[in-house]
Structure formats: C-alpha cells, structure tokens
Amino acid sequence: MLSQRQLDILTLVVQLHAATGEPVGSKTLMNAGINASSATIRNDLSFLEKEGFIEKPHTSAGRVPSVQGYRFYVDHLLKPSTVSNEELSSIRQSFNRNFTALNEIIEKSAQVLSDLTSYTAFSLGPEMNERKLTGFRVVPLNNQQLMAIIVTDRGNVESQVFTVPDDVSSGDIEKIIQIINDKLVGQPLITVYNKLRTEIPLILQRYFQTPRGIMDIFESILGNAFEERVYIGGQMNLLDVDLIPDVHQFKLVYSLMSNQNQVSSLIQTPKEGISIRIGEEIQNDLLANMSLITASYDVAEHGTGTIAILGPTNMAYSRMFGIVEAFRHELADYLADYYRLLDS
Amino acid sequence: MLSQRQLDILTLVVQLHAATGEPVGSKTLMNAGINASSATIRNDLSFLEKEGFIEKPHTSAGRVPSVQGYRFYVDHLLKPSTVSNEELSSIRQSFNRNFTALNEIIEKSAQVLSDLTSYTAFSLGPEMNERKLTGFRVVPLNNQQLMAIIVTDRGNVESQVFTVPDDVSSGDIEKIIQIINDKLVGQPLITVYNKLRTEIPLILQRYFQTPRGIMDIFESILGNAFEERVYIGGQMNLLDVDLIPDVHQFKLVYSLMSNQNQVSSLIQTPKEGISIRIGEEIQNDLLANMSLITASYDVAEHGTGTIAILGPTNMAYSRMFGIVEAFRHELADYLADYYRLLDS
DNA sequence: TATTAGCACTCGAAACGACCGAGTGCTAAT
DNA sequence: ATTAGCACTCGGTCGTTTCGAGTGCTAATA
C-alpha cells in the first residue's frame, strides 16, 4: 500500500513534528534524509494526505500527522528507544530509599515517572480488589478519640482518627472490635465491604439499640481502604505543554484529575502491556489534543498495577514508550522484592 | 490634608477599580456619585496623584490606586462589610461534619475559606510549639511492619508505617518504646525533639550496639509531628486572577506554595488580629501584584492559629476583611468547642 | 477662591493593509 | 517515476491609520 519512502516520510513527519512542534514541509524532509527531490516528496505527502495519515493546518503550511497517522506510526513504525543506563540507574536509585507503606512507594513512583518524562504521570498499585483484610486495630488516643488502623493483604495501610460519640461506651467499642476481628479479618476486601452492609448490622442489633452512629464510622474507614487510589505526579507539567489553550481548560483538566473515579476510568486499560491512546481515542473532549500511554505490570501473585503518562499528541513516542516499558519492569521488580521482604 | 471630596474620590477609585479591574476616569467618578463636575474631579485626581495615592498606567488612561493609596484606604477609609447571615450559617454548616483529627479541621477550613473568597486560602492550626507529646504507640501490623502513632497535646495525630530493619529484634522495639514512653511522653514537643538528638541516643547505646538505623526512623516520625503544617485551599484560584501574567510565574508561585517553610514565613504575622499587606509590602517579588490578608485567632488556653487569603491587589477589601473577620471567630469558636469536647 | 465648560492633546487598542516567505500543486521535461 | 520550474496561497509580521477615553490647561463663572 505505502511505498518504503512513504513510510520513511510518515515516520519523519511524526518525529520532526514531535521535535519542533511545527508542521513539516517537503524541503525539511529532504534535508532530514529522504533521498528524493522536494517535488517527489510533495507527491508522496499529497498521497499520504489523501489516505488520511497527515493533514495540513492550512494551505501554505507543512503537514502534521493525523490521529490515524499517529495510530499507524505507533502500531507499525515505532521503534521503542532503549533507555540509557544512567536513566535506568536513576530510576532504581529513586526507589532505593527505605519506603514504608506500599502507598508511599506507589505515590513516589508517579513522582519519578513524571520527572522522567516531564509529563503528567499516574500510578495505581497492584490490584486492590483481590486484597484481603489482614489486620484491624483500634488504638485509644485519649478520652474521646480512637485511631482505627486497617492493614490489607500486604503492606497497604489506612488509618483514621475518630471521635467516639457520647452514647457509645468503651465496652461497646471492645465488642465491635471483636466482631470485626471474628467476622471480617481474613476476608477479601470486597466481602468485607458487603458484609459491612448486610450481616454486621444484624449482629450488632443483638447488642445495641442504635448501632447506626458507630457503624457509620467503621463503614467510612473500611470504605476508605477499599477505594483504589491513583496517585498523580507532575500535574503542573501540563502547563508547559502549549496544548492547553487557555487557563480555563487547564482548570477543567485539573479538576478532572482531582476526581479519583474519573482518573481511575481514564487509565483503565483493556489489554495487557502497554497501550497508547491518541487524541480523540481517549474519548474525552478535554484531552482531545493529548495522548495517553498506559502500561500494566504484574507482581507475581500479588496482582497487577498500572502506570500511565499523559502528554501532548506530538510527544516523542519512541522515547516515552521506552521509558514506560523500562519503568514498568523496574517497578514490578522493586515491588516483588518488597513483597518478598515482607514474606520473609 | 485631604478634603472630604478627595477622600470620597480615593475610596471610589479603590472600589471601582476592584469591581471592574479597569482604571477609573473622571466621568466615571462623576456618574458614580461624586457631586462635582468632571473638571473638578480631574483637579482632585491630579492632586491625589501628586500626593502619591494614585497613578496612571499611561497618559490617556484613568487612575489606579498606588500601594500607598491602598494603604491609606485600608488604614483609614475601609469599612468592613458585614457578612450576611446566610454566609455565616454556611460557614458554620461546613464545620458541622463530625471531624476527626485537628489537622482535618484545619485542612477543611482552608478549603472553606478559599471557596468563600474565591482566592487562595491558608490555615495554620493553633500554635504547635507549645504542644506536648501526650501519647506514643507502636502497633505491629505484620511480620515486618509497624505503625508508630504520635498524639500531641490534644487531638493532633501523626502516624507512620515503617519496616523493621533486619538487625532489630522485637525485643529491641519493646525496649525503645519503653524508653520513649518513660523519657518523652508528657514533654513539650520541642524538648522531645532535642532529647531525641542528645539524651536518647546515649541511653540506647547502653542497650544496643548500633542504634543508628532504628533511631533514624523514630527521629523522622517525631520530626514529622513537630513540623507545623500550613494547609492551603484553592490554589487554582490564582489562575482566575488576571494578575498572573504568564504560566511560568504561576508555576513559580505554585512551587512557592509547595514549600512549607516559605508558606509558613509568608503568613507569619507580627501583630494580633487582622493584618493586610499590599503588593510590595509582602516583600516577595513573585507576589508583587497581590495582597495578603492575615488573621490570627485565639483558642483560649490552646494557643493561637492563623488564617490568610492571597488575592489580587485590587481585591474587594471591605468584603474580604469582613469574611476573614467572621471566619476567624467562627473557627476559634468551633475549635474551642472541639477542645471542650475532648476535655469532657 | 472654588468650580466648571471647552478644547487641544496624548496614547493605547483595534482595524487595516502591504509584504514576506514557507509551502503547495501543477505542468512539462528528463 | 522523478524532477525542475513556476504561479499561487495564506498565515504572520510590521508599519500606518483611526478611534475614543481620558487628561491638562485656560478662560469664564458663581
């Protein structure tokens, strides 16, 4: 369908446009290594345009890749650049501090990934839904306040301070803790979440007249732990990209990113490995001129996590692909170590 | 010095400029209620300019208040607008949820204040430095992880999960906890912080060969609790203000606000009550075209806290002053209640 | 003496237009 | 199939003009 030269031209259009941000013209392509006259290149350009791979912003400008063009490039022409050893070791180094809870590692990873790419990065830890509630503690802090601590499967910890309502005695609390330990600890979180709305209130009714107040508290705590949390790094990097035409849109994007649910569904990826979505493929009007690279990673029997970066449509795909690819492996390795340590 | 009409004119210039953002001309002032011809007003304007209260962006524009003009307005002309009952009750309502730890109340207050003013808001809880360490708990989570919980004076809680180094046995941990409980609980935080670097290591040396690793952990945890934390709400509101000329400056301001130390010293206020700093008075080049309203509030014997808002120099001072004034009292009352509850 | 009407003047913002040049499409020659 | 040549397009830049809000000054007025 496309001649080799046409493939070369498309590749260069994508890469030069990524490098300069400008539309690419026939002479530029000639100088960039296409072995043909500018006229010939123009013919090819015109062909590529007819086929929908590139388009021109206006008559007398150069060409710019279309979404379809990017798609084709990403699917067939992209050669992931290998990550330099220095970068690799800088990734490792940034994970090298002795982190504490899993959440903090995940949070840090979003930070590092965004620094590395200078775009906005997302990080979601290994699948939460398969996790079990492995520990539940309530620690008295003073007369009126308690701290509830929830430990899930491995390493993930949520805590919340709460004030005891007037009508609840410390004996009541004891009983509730015992019930929770009996009935909930060791169960998958999803079960916990369900029982909390069905079975537990029934049991509590046997002991208390009005279990509602205290139940609300525990429900909110456990609910917190249940929610998966996507960490975001480098949100301000979006401001550098000239793709945010006005401040208003930036605020919209920012508030989009403040909403866990929306972010969650944004970086949801259907398939294994790395997926690249370009412009309108993201199916979100706000992000129409951006691209999203999503990658999943497996941590042995501990489920799979997700990382992602969001940048301009004309990002340097091969470099970004390389970074994301390297990063997902590093993170998976690091987490495998982390779990191994916990198990030892 | 200034005639009554000149005072009126200055007031109107400030207020109209706040309302429209445009320089104010003589005709506008005439229509806005100054009882004199535009020529007369021009004379007064020219006088006010000579005295340094107003200035003109360029020859054929209207006048704009100078910093000195704002200063005079704020010091002598400003009538704080009273806050409507609805607003007052909406403030109260937003505090009405059953909050848990003090930090969360303070965080929420920054949020509410920024919503109310549509500027950026800061909130610092009642003086931390006078606080004492009243509780210290270490809770085992699993084989390798512990959670340390620190409770200060009243209601303030910090927690941190950490992984136990290989060379530390659970007996060691027990001993350390005991030492901390003996030597540190009940002391003011500042003492804790100091002892942690002097006395405690000496004691530990008696028991362990290499106390360093474990000490690092505790030091970082306690250090965390020691740090005062200013909460910020509505940072994105700065983007609405047309005062941020370019995205670059916004990023600078944003990173300024990401630095606890800088924010802390920013909202440091010398005097009691409400203080208004205008433009260059803030002594920060980045904020040269903004104003900062800082207010302190007392919570009986629990120290004093600070709230602040940061907005454009031409903000509606009387309204903002009113809001901040109302807010500091509401917050003080609410916290007084909160502490009363804890003491009961 | 304070106020006001009148008028010439200033200067930024917006509208206009000429020009430039990168880039195109097409045609005819190789 | 490729290329040289050329007329054409159109956004961006830059200087000019126009417009109008606002000023300062002067002379008349209360």
From TrEMBL, chains A, B:
InterPro entries the UniProt entry points to: GAF-like_dom_sf, HrcA, HrcA_C, WH-like_DNA-bd_sf, WH_DNA-bd_sf, WHTH_transcript_rep_HrcA_IDD
A GO term for molecular function: DNA binding
Gene3D superfamilies reported in the protein's UniProt record: 3.30.450.40, Heat-inducible transcription repressor hrca homolog, domain 3, Winged helix-like DNA-binding domain superfamily/Winged helix DNA-binding domain
UniProt keyword terms in alphabetical order: Repressor, Stress response, Transcription, Transcription regulation
PANTHER family, per database record: HEAT-INDUCIBLE TRANSCRIPTION REPRESSOR HRCA
Function: Negative regulator of class I heat shock genes (grpE-dnaK-dnaJ and groELS operons). Prevents heat-shock induction of these operons.
Protein name, UniProt field: Heat-inducible transcription repressor HrcA
Species this chain originates from: Vagococcus elongatus
